[in-house]
Amino acid sequence: MNEPSRKPRVAVVFGGKSSEHAISCVTAGSVLAAIDRNVYDVVPIGIATDGRWVLESGDPDQLRITGPDQLPSVDGDRAPVALAPEAASTGLVVTEPSQPPRTLGEVDVVFPLLHGPWGEDGTIQGLFEMAGVRYVGAGVLSSAVSMDKAYMKVVLAAAGLPVLPSTTVTARQWERDQPGCRERAAGLGYPLFAKPARGGSSIGISKVHDESELAGAIEEALRYDPKVLLEAYAEGGREVECGVLQALDGTPETSVPAEIRISGDHEFYDFAAKYLPEEHTELDVPANLPDAVTEQIRDMSVRAFEAVDGEGLARVDFFVLPGDRVVVNEINTMPGFTPTSMYPRMWAATGVDYPALVDRLIRLALQRDTGLR
């Protein structure tokens, strides 16, 4: 830092071009409200749905879901802002019509609260690496592998972790060889799930009860991603999650696991069940599991985190099948991060409250160098 006496400057980046834009905004509102302004200088940076970077107001009240059709978004008409690498630092420059460019000063760390492609997939992490600015969370490779559910399964299986059977269908394959795609789906058995391979927040996911629903489910997933993951149904599986958080010395620690129980009209943990009022969703924190299963989940969470070369934080999702057989569903390198999201709730139940969680992640990023490590 060029000014040793000043507070570390944290750029909170949110929004983005993915289908999870609104959820990123909600997450950012919670983090902006929790960061200790006596310790950190905070600059809110929004990325509009068309990719423009702007200087946002950072008002948490403007970044809340107020109803099913009232989702927050970044105002792309605000003053444009850009990272400007210099010889020994990286700063933020604001450009407005009829005004000379003005600098907001050196950026010490970026907190990228982005979900989905162009944010959680290694793309923006690569930008930060090129700019030489520290950032919270996983690096380029870890972000990319964990975002792509098909490759994530390859990496986890290679590390000896159990995963559900699956196959991928690309837009090209579906266009040219639907019989072959249907045959591979049938090999998984019905029901199955069709998912955008690089999506999140359950957007574009369908439960496929039989072959008659397959085409519609694949085409729905293709709206969000040209690669679709078809995955076997975890019959009788309980949905359990576990948080991973690095200690300041880099050691990965785990939270108590938690279970999601869905009722009503929701057949699975879809977008409405995750983010709208919890009338049909019950969260057990901690999960009511045998001690041996809890320890297995915590151990497998660390193994999954290390398999993808994780950094900072992750949420690892599991299915606990009949007979207490545990399989890994997926790993999220930037999980939902509002105070009511599962990741912070698990850590609160483990003894790390929300402000402390935010502070830990910023401090971890501040002490980590960019580049090969």
From TrEMBL:
Q: Where in the cell is it found?
A: Cytoplasm
- What Pfam families would the database entry show? Dala_Dala_lig_C, Dala_Dala_lig_N
What sort of enzyme, by top EC class, is this? ligase
Instruction: Give the enzyme's EC designation.
Output: 6.3.2.4
The cofactor named in the record is: Mn(2+); Mg(2+)
Superkingdom is Bacteria
Per the record, the pathway is: Cell wall biogenesis; peptidoglycan biosynthesis
Q: Which PROSITE patterns match?
A: ATP_GRASP, DALA_DALA_LIGASE_1, DALA_DALA_LIGASE_2
Chain ranges of the ATP-grasp domain: 153-363
Keywords, ordered alphabetically: ATP-binding, Cell shape, Cell wall biogenesis/degradation, Cytoplasm, Ligase, Magnesium, Manganese, Metal-binding, Nucleotide-binding, Peptidoglycan synthesis
Q: Which InterPro entries match?
A: ATP-grasp, ATP_grasp_subdomain_1, D-Ala_lig_Van_CS, D_ala_D_ala, Dala_Dala_lig_C, Dala_Dala_lig_N, PreATP-grasp_dom_sf
KW Nucleotide-binding (keyword) present: yes
Spell out the molecular function terms from Gene Ontology.
Answer: ligase activity
Q: Which PANTHER family match?
A: D-ALANINE--D-ALANINE LIGASE, D-ALANINE--D-ALANINE LIGASE A
Q: Which HAMAP family does the entry link to? A: Dala_Dala_lig
Which family, according to the similarity comment? Answer: Belongs to the D-alanine--D-alanine ligase family.
What the protein does comes down to: Cell wall formation.
Name used for this protein in its record: D-alanine--D-alanine ligase
Please name the taxonomic classification of the source: Bacteria, Bacillati, Actinomycetota, Actinomycetes, Propionibacteriales
